[in-house]
Amino acid sequence: MAPPKDPRRRYPLYLNILVIFLLLMVAVAGAITWYNYRAGSERAVASSKRLMQDVVNQFTGELSQFMGKAYAFLLIAAEHPGVNLPPAREEHDLRGLFFKALEANPHFFSVYLGHDDGDFFQVMRLKNMPAQAREEIKAPPQAAYAMRAIERGADGARVQTWIFLDAKHQRLAGWSQSDPAYDPRKRPWFQRARTVGKVQGSGYYVFSSLQEPGMTLAYRFAPEPRGGVLGVDVSARSLSAFVAEHKPSPSGLTVVFDEDKRLVAYPDSHKAVRQVMIDGREKLRLATLDNLGDPLLKQLSSRFDPQRPNQILDFSVGDEQYSCGVVRIRDFHGRFAYVAQFTPMDELIGPIIASNLHSLLISLLIMLAAVPLALFVAQHISRPLSRVVAETRAMRELQLDPTPAIESRVREIHRLTQSVDAMKATLRTFSRYVPVDLVHQLVASGQEQGLGGEKRVLTLMFSDVASFTDMAEHMDPEALMQKTSHYFSGLCEEILANQGTIDKFIGDAVMAFWNAPLPDPEHAAHACRAALMCRARSRAMDGAWQAQGQPIMHTRLGLHTGEVIVGNVGTAHRMEYTALGAAVNLASRLEGLNKVYGTQILASQATLEAAGEGFVWRVVDQVEPKGTTEPILIHELVGLMGDDPELAPDRSLLDFCRRWDEAFALYQRRDWAAASEAFAALAGERPQDQAAQVMARRTADFLADPPPPDWDGSAVYQIK
C-alpha cells in the first residue's frame, strides 16, 4: 500500500543536519561571545568589588593601626608612675616614653600631658612642619623635635619653656616666657575628656601647624593625686598615602570621606585642605566633596545614599564613563566613614570588548572551515537511516523477509536498526497466529509507592539560629542565602555522618531524626553525638565569620525521644517522607527553651535515658512546655567523655555540673535556703551562665515566698 502524498516539501536528513549544524555554530559563536562579554563584565565588576573590598579591608587595617596605636599609647601612658608629676622645664618622667611613641609611630605629630592645675608637658615632631609654623615657635632649622613645658614658679607665676632637639634628642636651643597665653585647661581636647578611663576623639580637622588633616585623641586619667588629660595628635598623611597607592586602575581614584562629606584621605593630602574665611579671618578646613572642584566628587556628593552600606554608581564626566563603588565603614568612635573608588569604564571592560571581537572572528573562521566536515558527517549519519526508512516501508507492505544487517557506529542508529530487525521478527512470528493489523507492541509497567506510615520510636532534633531575623534584615539577600546554605551544609554533614535523616529545612531551622527509615538501635546516642558535633561545627563557623567581621549564627538545638508516625504523607501526586506526632512538637519546644536558659543543647529525660553512658549532662529544670500536660525534666547536653577536645568537657566544667546537680537536688527537696545559696554561688562563679542566673533568682524568690505545698516543681512555658 502506497503512503499518502505529503503536501509539504521535505528535505534530506543530511541537508537538515548541515543547516542545523551551521545554525548551531552561529548560535554557539554568538552565545559564547555574548557569554564571554557578560561573564567578562561580571568578572570585571566582581574583580572590582573584590578589589574594593580588599582596599576597604586594608584601609580598615590601616585605620586600626592609625588609631589603635594612639589608643594603646594613651592607656600605657596613663599607667606610668610619673604621669602625676609636674614638668621641670627640660625634664619630665614621661619624656622618654613620649619620644619612643613619636619614633615608633611616624603618624604621631605630637604627644602631651595637661594637669587640672594648668601644668603642661608636650613633645612634638617638627618634620613636615611648614616654615612659618617653625618660625612662630623659633625652632632652629636643624631641629627635629620640640619640647614644651608650662609650670608654676616659686612665686606662683606660670612659665612656658620651649626646648629644641636634633634627631638624636640632643639639645640645640631653647627659650622661655612668663604668663603664656596657652592654657591646656581651656583647650577643646582637655575639656572634651571629662570621663575618666575613656578615650575621646575630636573627629577629623586640619592641624594649623602642619596644614594637614588629622585627629586628636585625649584620655583623662584618675584624679588622685593629680588629675589630668593625656593627648596625642595623629596626622592623616599615612591615610592619604594609602589611597594614593591603591588606585582601582591606572586612571582610577580612591578617596575616603566622613559623614559630613569632608575628605579624610585624598591622594594629594594638601588638596584635601582649603582656606576659608571665618569671621573675617582665613582659616584652614577640610575640603568637601562639593568644594574640592572635582566633578566626579561633586556627582558622588549628590547621588550617594549615606544610609546604604554598599552601593555601585555610574557617572559621566564629558565623554568619559565611570563606575564608582562606595563602601561604608565605622571608625573607632562609631562614626561612619565612606571609601569610594572611581574606575573609567574603558579601563574596566575595554579589554573584554576587544577580546570578544577577536573570539568572534576566530569562531567565524572555524565555522567556515568546518562546513565540509559537517557535510561529510551528515551524509555518514543519514545513510544508515535511509536504509532503515526503506526497511520500514517494506514492513508496511508486509515484506518481512530478512535483509543484510545495517551497520552504523552511531549508538542510537545501531539500536534503531536492531529494534527494526526485532520488530520484523516479531511481526513474522505473530503474523503466523493473528492478523497483521492486530500485532501490537507490549509495554511493561512498574509499581508506584503508596501513602502510609508506621509507629516507631525516633530521636528527633530541631535546630534554630539565634537572632536570625535581625541578621536577615541587615544582610543582602544573596549573601544571606550563601551564608545560610554554608551553615546548613556544615550542620547536615555532621547529622548525616552520625546516621541521621534530614527531614526538612524550615527557614533557618533544621529538622532531623534517627531510627528511620533504617532501624538504628543506638539512635539516641547518635543523635546526641550529632548535636555535639553540630555545636562544635557551628562554633568553628562562627569563629571564622567573626574574624571576617561578619555576623555569627549561634545555633540552638532541641532533642527528644518518643513514639511518632513515620512514613509517606501527602497526596497521590506529591508525597513527603516525614514524622508526625506530639514527640515532634516537644523536640521543637525544647529547642525554643534554650532562649530561656541560655543553653545550646536541651534534651528530654527520655533522650538522656536512651542515649546511654558516656555523655555529660546537666539537669536544667522541670518544665511543662506549651502543648504538654505532664511535667518533664530537661537536661543540657554538655559534652562527651573521651579524647576529642571539641566534645570533651574540662575538669572545671565537670565539677561545675556536679555541684549544679547537687544544688538542683536541694531545689527538688524544697530546701530553698540551701538551694538559693548553692545556685547563687554557681551564678557568681559563672556570670555568663544564664541558667544559673535563672535558678538563682527563682530560689531566692522561693526563699522569700515559698510556692504552695501542691506545687509539682514545674515551670510552665508558652514558648513555641
From TrEMBL:
<dbReference type="InterPro" id="IPR001054">
    <property type="entry name" value="A/G_cyclase"/>
</dbReference>
<protein>
    <submittedName>
        <fullName>Adenylate/guanylate cyclase domain-containing protein</fullName>
    </submittedName>
</protein>
<dbReference type="InterPro" id="IPR029151">
    <property type="entry name" value="Sensor-like_sf"/>
</dbReference>
<dbReference type="GO" id="GO:0006171">
    <property type="term" value="P:cAMP biosynthetic process"/>
</dbReference>
<feature type="domain" description="Guanylate cyclase">
    <location>
        <begin position="459"/>
        <end position="591"/>
    </location>
</feature>
<keyword id="KW-0812">Transmembrane</keyword>
<dbReference type="InterPro" id="IPR029787">
    <property type="entry name" value="Nucleotide_cyclase"/>
</dbReference>
<feature type="domain" description="HAMP">
    <location>
        <begin position="379"/>
        <end position="432"/>
    </location>
</feature>
<feature type="transmembrane region" description="Helical">
    <location>
        <begin position="12"/>
        <end position="35"/>
    </location>
</feature>
<dbReference type="Pfam" id="PF00672">
    <property type="entry name" value="HAMP"/>
</dbReference>
<keyword id="KW-1133">Transmembrane helix</keyword>
<dbReference type="InterPro" id="IPR003660">
    <property type="entry name" value="HAMP_dom"/>
</dbReference>
<dbReference type="InterPro" id="IPR050697">
    <property type="entry name" value="Adenylyl/Guanylyl_Cyclase_3/4"/>
</dbReference>
<dbReference type="Pfam" id="PF00211">
    <property type="entry name" value="Guanylate_cyc"/>
</dbReference>
<dbReference type="GO" id="GO:0016020">
    <property type="term" value="C:membrane"/>
</dbReference>
<keyword id="KW-0472">Membrane</keyword>
<dbReference type="GO" id="GO:0004016">
    <property type="term" value="F:adenylate cyclase activity"/>
</dbReference>
<dbReference type="GO" id="GO:0035556">
    <property type="term" value="P:intracellular signal transduction"/>
</dbReference>
